[in-house]
């Protein structure tokens, strides 16, 4: 049975109030599918019954399960590969020439960890001198995704999508139908839970921030607030990477684009 407009608005507000994320209207038809596992675990019979339970209860674990089920967790290894090429061929060599401090990288909204681990593998293979002293943080709002990321275990489908064979052979071992990332790479990434629309925990000043394919889910005011915090956190000569469909130019005036062949990233305007 289709949701009433009031019930759909309730779900939208539940997600938005705790994450800042705006559910698009066309996602209504996907709610029953995405929330199916939550309905089953709660022993309920329908989406309507789930919403009755949500409305009748104070915020608790089942509300969190609903929110996490509706978060977009699309990710894969070396997604938007030209950005990783820019990191390998231009940004990191430049950093090595003027290396005067510890190298800090933050992957925000990293989902199940593929982005952060892609960076870790790239640096470990090509810039081992950096990997021994860098501070690489991967963060997400979802406890479920962070648990997966920390475990470093991926399906065949996940390693087939974007991961070069050389990295698979060097850094992964297969057990049954799962691929397990080596401890030498897992130990390079520190995962923590961060909600981008709430107060961020203390973080070191960052040389590189990956905040890709997440700003599109926030309204304009929240994007501005997030990017203002990014500006304060990013080192004056640091780089911000956004998703291919995202831009700072229509949101805030204090970032400027930098073009690297097929990739674009952003730096602070001083």
Mean pLDDT: 89
Give the uncertain stretches in residue-range form. Answer: none
**In what order do the strands lie side by side in the largest sheet?**
6-2-1-7-8
Distance between the termini: 55 Å
Order of helices and strands: HHHHHEHHEHEHHEEHEEHEEE
Helix content: 40-55%
Question: TL;DR?
Answer:
This protein has helices at 5-19, 31-41, 47-56, 61-70, 81-97, 114-126, 128-131, 143-151, 156-160, 165-171, 183-186, 220-233, and strands at residues 104-107, 135-140, 153-155, 172-175, 178-181, 189-193, 206-210, 234-241, 255-260, 263-268. By secondary structure, the protein is α/β, with parallel strands linked by helices. Helix 2 (31-41) runs antiparallel to helix 4 (61-70).
Written account of the structure:
With 270 residues, the protein is an alpha/beta fold. The chain is 44% helix and 19% strand. It is built from 12 helices and 10 strands. A 5-stranded parallel beta sheet has the order 6-2-1-7-8. Helix 12 links the parallel strand 7 and strand 8. The model has no long low-confidence stretch (mean pLDDT 89).
What's the helix and strand layout?
Layout: H1 5-19, H2 31-41, H3 47-56, H4 61-70, H5 81-97, E1 104-107, H6 114-126, H7 128-131, E2 135-140, H8 143-151, E3 153-155, H9 156-160, H10 165-171, E4 172-175, E5 178-181, H11 183-186, E6 189-193, E7 206-210, H12 220-233, E8 234-241, E9 255-260, E10 263-268
Parallel strand pairs: 1-2, 1-7, 2-6, 7-8
Antiparallel strand pairs: 3-5, 4-5, 9-10
Helix pairs in contact: 1-4, 2-4
């Amino acid at each position: 049975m289709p949701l009433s407009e009031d019930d759909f608005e309730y779900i939208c507000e539940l997600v938005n109030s705790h994450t800042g994320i705006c559910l698009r209207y066309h996602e209504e038809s996907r709610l029953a599918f995405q929330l199916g596992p939550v309905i089953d675990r709660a022993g309920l019979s329908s989406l309507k019954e789930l919403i009755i339970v949500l409305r009748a209860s104070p915020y608790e674990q089942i509300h969190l399960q609903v929110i996490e089920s509706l978060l977009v967790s699309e990710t894969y290894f070396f997604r938007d590969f030209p950005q990783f090429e820019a990191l390998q061929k231009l940004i990191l060599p430049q950093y090595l020439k003027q290396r005067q401090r510890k190298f800090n990288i933050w992957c925000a909204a990293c989902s199940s960890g593929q982005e952060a681990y892609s960076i870790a593998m790239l640096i470990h293979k090509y810039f081992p001198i950096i990997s021994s002293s860098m501070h690489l943080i991967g963060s997400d709002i979802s406890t479920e995704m962070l648990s997966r990321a920390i475990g470093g275990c991926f399906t065949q489908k996940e390693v087939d999508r974007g991961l070069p064979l050389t990295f698979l052979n060097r850094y992964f071992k297969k057990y049954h139908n799962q691929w397990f990332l080596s401890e030498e790479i897992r130990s390079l990434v520190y995962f923590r839970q961060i909600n981008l629309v709430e107060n961020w925990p203390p973080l070191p000043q960052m040389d590189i921030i990956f905040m890709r394919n997440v700003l599109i889910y926030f309204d304009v005011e929240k994007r501005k607030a997030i990017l203002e915090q990014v500006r304060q956190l990013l080192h004056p000569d640091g780089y911000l990477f956004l998703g291919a469909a995202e831009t700072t130019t229509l949101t805030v005036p204090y970032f400027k684009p930098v073009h690297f062949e097929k990739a674009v990233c952003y730096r602070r305007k001083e």
